Amino acid sequence: IILDAGPLVALADAGDPHNAWAAGKIGGTGRPFIVTSAAIAEASHVLNNGTRAIEFLEKLVARMHVEDPT
Questions:
Q1: pLDDT at residue 70 above 90?
Q2: Contact yes or no for 2/34 (Cβ under 8 A)
Q3: How far is Cα 25 from Cα 62, in angstroms, rounded to an integer?
Q4: What's the pTM?
């Protein structure tokens, strides 16, 4: 499953209106996820590069496969 920035932001921000949806779809599955470095950068920017958000993204992305198109 390929993710863009939207679900990453929703998971990292408890106040996001899609947080519960993202947590239900992504948080508990054992499926492999693929994310690009561009999606990670966009999510970081949308989350204002906040320290807690970046730490959360690092932990989340560590469980995913980061792959960039060639």
A1: no
A2: yes
A3: 18
A4: 0.85
